[in-house]
Design goal:
Elements: E1 4-5, E2 14-16, E3 22-28, E4 33-37, H1 65-78, H2 95-101, H3 115-122, H4 130-171, H5 174-198, H6 208-216, H7 226-241, H8 249-265, E5 267-268, E6 273-274, H9 284-303, H10 306-317, H11 323-350, H12 378-410, H13 419-434, E7 442-449, E8 452-455, E9 469-471, E10 476-482, E11 489-492, E12 509-513, H14 515-520, H15 524-532, H16 542-559, H17 569-593, H18 611-627, H19 631-641, H20 647-662, H21 668-675, E13 701-702, E14 707-708, E15 710-712, H22 713-720, E16 727-734, E17 737-745, H23 746-759, H24 768-771, H25 773-776, H26 778-783, H27 785-802, H28 809-819, H29 835-839, E18 842-844, E19 855-857, H30 862-872, E20 876-880, E21 886-891, H31 897-916, E22 926-927, H32 941-948, H33 956-965, H34 974-977, H35 997-1019
Parallel strand pairs: 13-22, 14-16, 19-20
Antiparallel strand pairs: 1-4, 2-3, 3-4, 5-6, 7-8, 7-12, 8-9, 10-11, 10-12, 15-18, 16-17, 20-21
């Protein structure tokens, strides 16, 4: 198709035309002219549903709105789509999702090493670490205080709500209690949702995927905004206290990341507030390091697990890790945990319930009865891992499908998004009130000693089992005492504001408790403690556990992601604990059937058979199956239970659940990032074959927009116009042509242009602080956004307003007026120079370009390019040839999984064309892709269809070559094998199993004519 020439500067490397097609732009370095190539014809992209645009008409949809919504929900729920992809398969984004991917901007981890940066760095203190340690301590201290305040609010409101409900049940009737419970829960959820929807929508959800995206190198807007932080805190407190199946752990991670960002940067653009303290930390590397520390402190404060917090950041969220950073993060986690425990002890001391400095609540789910491990414990651990892995697949898929449905139905709404969590609160609270009615009260023998409840294990007939063990409070229905002498029966009822039975005297009484209400009429943490309690073998039966599992599984999946700030850690632990306790209860029954005897307090070979112990194993396994955490999760489970004897079963169950879940779905957080269309790069690339077989040229964008070291101001502005890319390779003239010397970012070029237009000359030096005003002085940068925009737009405004010659006095006057603060009111421009004179001045960009840009040759391995890009936290990776000429550029979007698959397919297809007479083996780069990561466009469908199809008709001569190559001992398909074999030339060494040089020479001559012909067709 003939190219359509456009005006200079009106296009860039790639640009969304808004019509569903992608324009491709080629840059001419000599004259800075662009040519746009249209790929409208032959577009065979399928719509999101995968159905062809032409075909038999679809069945008529329901006419009413409710029917249409129900049909869409049913199709999304029961359609097998990208939500059930193996972890060893890359996610396939739709055409619409690929457009959204291009809207996410990337960030560098290391600052550009330019001349101005080195001048600034020379004046900074080197190897001064005390202020860094102070900042880490401040993050830990603030996180501990915030976590204590949040948990105090949650526990206070929840205790009042549940206590009043229990009092109404005992003193009024069930209807009044239901009305009060539903009303309070609905009001709390409505307030939590209103804060998120009305003030900070970025606070919705747990915030963990967004933090992971930022630390991976993606810019997520307003994720660390001050309003987001405040709304996250109060919305989380309200919705968790309401009783919904959510937890505060995820929001605490987001809050910790926001605190790390706010404290280290010392400014707030929202509040127009800035300080001079810790100003040297205002760079991408230090900010991401302190955000990593905040994430670790959030986990440490949520679970009271400092080592688990450190490992969580290392394993799941941090993309760049150094040993020194590990020590500093560990210090911050230690301070956060210490602060939290000191604050708890101070609160108890002030309330007269403890002593200051006494850490009696320093373990979240502390196990009071411990025992030695046993080899046989691995067997039920494997079973728990298998079951948890299967249900983790269902949980992950259901969450992602519900998230997609929610986006389709309510993405265009604002206040209407509050309806969903309010309805969920009414349904969940009502069911919690009704379900206990269907479960009769269960009797058990208990006694109370100094305020501690001791109840029977439920295992009668074994002398080695004690009659009573310490117990958590039960939801008591009534207490019956039978006098041993007279046989008289006396019945007591529990106090109205407590589930603790009021036992008379020090004797043993029969306590009737409701199994379902014991687990539902309390916060999620208290319910998990009940399931993990040792020595309570028969406390909860199979029927109740099964009903609770189904109810909690469905409700937690539906509530997650709605318009409230909530986390999923507590629901995951709760569901896993139910599964583990059920398997543990079955293990107890099997042991009893075999006539085994054991003790729950005295050391013995079978004392590990305890449902509470396996509830801990199940909690870790299900959470591992959903999140795919391993090391950090195992350490967290041991820290929250203080039971190191169960470490081996926990590890076995976690790994089993992870392997099972990896076979069907991606992890939940990675799946949510895919739904949100965030270009997240996993630690290692996933592909069918090794990407070491494919050169990086198959994913690079080519050609690219180039800048020269010294060029006219007009040429710089024309190069920036019409493109939104953020990276521009800089070249200089040499005898061998234009060689690569560095990279310039768009923001730095804009800052230089702004200074030129304001001063009216190019003989100036822009400092590093001014180049990076957005990070170094963001408050002033926010005020100068208009100036930076007008630098590039002034000429277009001038042309569009005047529609005449730019040399006319009227045009110059209008241009001056439209420039505002840039050119002022001077008709001749700033500094006494006219606009045309300023535009024709030469500007030296060598002082501002990054001379330490990572560069790879075009033959560089794609796999190693991926690891280099991901490990070093890059934003751009320049590709050059053997003469250091720029051949292309690689950005984050080019290394996404689906593009790696497409590159592998193009590599296989191009090699097939080469051997059968078509194409060039080094012609696999995507033409016309964007250099910058903010507006990359996906390759047109026609381009993909032409290069990516491996199913080609192979001529007979080529088939002969294929049959010879098939004799190689390597277990690779012939199409991929051709990537690693020598060229078909007689002067190459022929390995064992390949045809002889004479035979290759003969075949090459036979293919010569068809090669050249097909090559001309492909190049045309």
């Amino acid at each position: 198709m003939a190219p359509t020439l456009t005006s200079p500067g009106s296009s860039g490397n790639v640009m969304d035309t808004g019509l569903g097609h992608t324009g491709h732009h080629r840059f001419n370095p000599s004259g800075f002219q662009y040519a746009q190539y249209s790929d409208d014809e032959g577009d065979d992209l399928l719509p999101a549903g995968g159905e062809p645009l032409l075909g038999p008409p679809a069945p008529s949809a329901p006419t009413n709105a409710f029917g249409r919504i129900a049909t869409r929900v049913a199709k999304t729920l029961f359609r097998r789509g990208p939500d059930t992809e193996s972890a060893r398969v890359n996610h396939r984004f739709t055409a619409e999702e690929r457009v959204k991917l291009n809207n996410v901007e990337s960030i560098d981890y290391l600052a550009p090493n330019s001349g101005t940066f080195r001048k600034w760095l020379y004046r900074q203190p080197h190897r001064r670490d005390w202020d860094r340690w102070v900042m880490m301590g401040m993050i830990g201290l603030s996180m501990g205080l915030v976590a204590n305040f949040l948990l105090s609010i949650i526990n206070g409101v929840a205790d009042w709500k549940y206590g009043t409900t229990r009092w109404l049940i005992g003193h009024a009737n069930m209807g009044v209690a239901w009305l009060f419970n539903v009303t309070v829960s609905t009001l709390l959820v409505a307030a939590a949702s209103a804060l998120c929807v009305g003030i900070a929508p970025e606070a919705i959800g747990s915030g963990v995927p967004e933090v992971m995206a930022y630390l991976n190198g993606c810019m997520v807007p307003r994720v660390f905004n001050i309003f987001t932080l405040v709304v996250k805190f109060f919305s989380c407190a309200l919705c968790v206290a309401s009783g919904l199946p959510v937890g505060p752990e995820g929001p605490l991670i987001h809050i910790g990341a926001a605190l790390g960002s706010a404290l280290s940067q010392g400014h707030s653009t929202t509040m127009s507030f800035s300080t001079e303290m810790f100003k040297r930390f205002r760079n991408p590397k230090d900010k991401r390091d302190f955000v990593t520390a905040g994430v670790s402190c959030g986990v440490a404060a949520a679970f009271n697990a400092p080592i688990g917090g450190l490992l969580f950041a290392f394993e799941e969220v941090a993309s760049f890790w150094q040993q020194s950073l590990g020590w500093q993060v560990f210090f911050a986690c230690m301070i956060a945990t210490l602060t939290l425990n000191v604050a708890k002890s101070a609160k108890n001391w002030l309330l007269g319930e403890g002593h200051f400095g006494w850490f009696e609540e320093d373990v979240a789910f502390e196990v009071t009865t411990s025992f030695s491990g046993h080899l046989l414990a691995i067997v039920p651990a494997i079973v728990i891992g298998l079951v948890c892995g299967i249900f983790a697949i269902l949980f992950t898929s259901l969450n992602i499908k519900v998230c997609r449905i929610r986006h389709e139905l309510s993405a265009h709404l604002k206040w209407g998004r509050m309806i969903e969590p309010i309805i969920m609160a009414i349904i969940y609270t009502s069911i919690c009130m009704v379900l206990p009615i269907f479960f009769p009260c269960t009797p058990t023998e208990c006694l109370e000693n100094d305020g501690v409840l001791y109840c029977a294990t439920g295992l009668g007939g074994n002398e080695s089992i004690p009659e009573n063990v310490p117990s958590l409070p039960l939801y008591t229905c009534r207490v019956v005492d039978i006098d041993d002498n007279t046989g008289d029966q006396t019945t007591w009822y529990p106090r109205g504001d407590s589930i603790m039975p009021s036992l008379p005297g020090n004797g043993t009484q029969t306590v009737f408790y409701n199994q379902f209400a014991t687990l539902l009429f309390s916060t999620g943490e208290e319910s998990i403690k009940q399931l993990l309690t040792r020595g309570t073998h028969k406390r909860f039966g199979y029927g109740m556990l099964a009903v609770l599992f189904v109810f909690y599984f469905i409700m937690s999946s539906l509530v997650a992601g709605s318009a409230i700030a909530s986390g999923l850690f507590v629901p995951m632990l709760m569901i896993g604990a139910i599964i583990g306790r059920t398997v543990g209860l079955a293990t107890v029954d099997i042991a009893e059937a075999l006539g085994k005897q054991w003790s729950v307090t005295i050391s013995g070979p079978l004392n590990w058979i305890d449902p509470g112990a396996f509830a801990l194993v199940g909690a870790g396994a299900f959470m591992g199956g959903v999140t795919r955490l391993t090391m950090s999760l195992a350490v967290i489970m041991i820290e929250v239970s203080s039971d190191v004897h169960m470490l081996l079963p926990v590890l076995v169950a976690i790994m089993t659940a992870k392997w099972v879940a990896d076979a069907v779905t991606h992890s939940l957080y990675h799946g949510l990032l895919e739904v949100k269309c965030v270009p997240f790069l996993p630690p290692e690339p996933v592909s069918k074959y090794s990407l070491d077989l494919v050169p990086v040229s198959f994913v690079m964008h080519s050609p690219v927009v180039l800048l020269k070291q010294t060029m006219k101001v007009r040429e710089v502005t024309e190069a920036l116009k019409g493109v939104s890319h953020n990276g521009f390779p800089v070249v200089r003239e040499s005898p061998s042509g234009q060689v690569f010397v560095g990279l310039l970012t768009r923001s730095h070029v804009m800052a230089v242009l702004q200074r030129i237009v304001v001063t009216g000359h190019t003989d100036m030096d822009v400092t590093w602080t001014e180049l990076n005003r957005k990070t170094m002085d963001p408050v002033m940068a926010q005020r100068s956004v208009h100036e930076q925009q007008m630098v590039v737009l002034s000429r277009e405004l001038h042309n569009s307003l005047m529609s005449g010659s730019s040399d006319s006095p009227l045009a110059r006057t209008s241009a001056s007026a439209s420039s505002g603060n840039i050119a002022g009111s001077r008709a001749n421009g700033a500094g006494g120079h006219s606009e045309s004179e300023v535009e024709n001045m030469m500007v030296d960009l060598s002082h501002y370009m990054n001379t330490s840009t990572f560069v790879v040759p075009d033959s560089f391995s794609l796999e190693r390019a991926y690891l280099l890009f991901r490990t070093m936290g890059l934003r751009h990776l320049v590709v050059v040839d053997e003469h250091n000429h720029v051949k292309g550029i690689v950005t984050r979007k080019d290394l996404l999984g689906y593009r790696l698959d497409e590159a592998l397919e193009r590599a296989i297809g191009s090699q097939t064309l080469l051997r059968s007479g078509g194409g060039d083996s080094r012609g696999g780069s995507r033409r016309g892709g964007g250099v910058g990561d903010a507006s990359e466009g996906c390759c047109p469908a026609k381009h993909h269809a032409r290069l990516a199809s491996p199913h080609r008709v192979i001529p007979a001569t080529a088939q002969a070559v294929h049959s010879d190559l098939a004799s190689t001992p390597l277990a690779l398909p012939p199409s991929l094998l051709r990537l690693i074999t020598p060229d078909l030339r007689p002067n190459k060494h022929t390995p064992i199993g390949l045809p002889s040089s004479k035979k290759l020479l003969a075949l090459t001559k036979q293919l010569g004519a068809s090669d050249s012909a097909a090559g001309r067709r492909s190049n045309g």
